[in-house]
Amino acid sequence: MRIIKFRGFHADEHGKTIIKLNGKEIRGFWYYGDLHTDGPYINEHLVIPETVGQYTGYYDDVNGRDIFEGDILSYVNEDGGVKYLAVFFGNGCFRYSEKGNCTDNELHSLFCLKPKVCGNIFENPELVEVEE
Questions:
Q1: 68: burial class by Cβ within 10 Å (0-12, 13-18, 19+)?
Q2: For each successive 10 residues of the chain (132 residues), what is the average pLDDT?
Q3: Which residue, 38, 39, 121, 129, shows the most beta carbons closer than 10 Å to its own?
Q4: Beta-carbon neighbour count of residue 112 at 10 Å?
């Protein structure tokens, strides 16, 4: 059975996490759970709509973290260098795109490389090119 859950960022001046959105830094918390679109809310918490990402159904093999839209994955390539990939939804499936590379591939094709979640496009935009 497919698990459907979401993640979204709730702005709160007392939050310990800082994200970057539209050139501004916002302090707050990430919330995970059911999405209610009348706001939108993750469970009872109002979240910033642009930060909402759906769970892909995949988790990384390295530390077992769930992978959501907007996450940044890393893996070590054949040359021993680290590659960073952004996760997004497009053309009916979850996909990934490399920094500086306009092509994208279906997310499931990446798992033979054992990627791990190393951040997201809101907290670590410097790892990948993000269009704002």
A1: buried
A2: 90 96 96 92 95 94 90 90 90 80 73 89 86 50
A3: 121
A4: 8
